[in-house]
């Protein structure tokens, strides 16, 4: 039988070790799904969207620990999305580093 004190300790442990939320923004369905599966298999909580506008809205309301953003998105590009987030300071008290990579080498 659990006591009130043990319930609180269990809750504190769960909060301390809660999974990291990763946000994936990728318009290619296969790449987006592959990232989602791989990250989930590694224990991350993943939210994935296909365009910059949806991503911008979600990032404002529920910021993740990490965002993986494709630069060549339809509509608002990934670079525009990163710039917008930085300018608007949507992620208070956090830095928002941006890095990019172009495709796989041939």
Structure notes:
- This protein is of the alpha/beta class and 106 residues long.
- The protein has a domain at 19-71: Rossmann fold (3-Layer(aba) Sandwich), CATH 3.40.50.2300.
- Helix content is 44%, strand content 13%.
- It has helices spanning 4-16, 29-41, 52-61, 78-88; strands at residues 21-25, 45-49, 66-69.
- It has a three-stranded parallel β-sheet, sandwiched between helices.
- α3 runs parallel beside α4 (78-88).
- The model has no long low-confidence stretch (mean pLDDT 78).
Q: Which residues sit in consecutive blocks of at least 5 with pLDDT less than 50?
A: none
What is the rounded Rg? 17 Å
Number of helices: 4
Main sheet: strands, sense, barrel? 3 strands, parallel
Q: Judging from the principal axes of the Cα atoms, what is the shape?
A: globular
Strand order of the largest sheet: 2-1-3
Percent helix: 40-55%
The percent range for strand residues is 5-15%
Architecture (CATH level 2) name of the domain at 19-71: 3-Layer(aba) Sandwich
Specify the CATH class of the domain at 19-71.
Alpha Beta
SSE-based structural type: alpha/beta
The H-level CATH homologous superfamily of the domain at 19-71, spelled out, is Response regulator
Distance between the termini: 61 Å
The tally of beta strands, per DSSP, is: 3
CATH topology of the domain at 19-71, which one? Rossmann fold
Q: Tell me the series of helices and strands, N- to C-terminal.
A: HEHEHEH
Q: What integer is the average pLDDT?
A: 78
């Amino acid at each position: 039988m659990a006591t009130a004190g043990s319930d609180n300790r269990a809750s504190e442990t769960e909060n301390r070790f809660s999974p990291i939320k990763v946000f994936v923004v990728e318009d290619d369905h296969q790449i987006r799904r592959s990232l989602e599966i791989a990250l989930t298999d590694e224990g991350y909580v993943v939210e994935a969207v296909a365009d910059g506008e949806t991503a911008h809205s979600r990032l404002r309301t529920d910021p993740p620990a990490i965002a993986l953003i494709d630069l060549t998105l339809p509509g608002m590009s990934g670079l525009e999305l990163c710039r917008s987030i930085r300018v608007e300071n949507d992620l208070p008290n956090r830095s928002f580093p941006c890095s990019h990579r172009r495709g796989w080498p041939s």
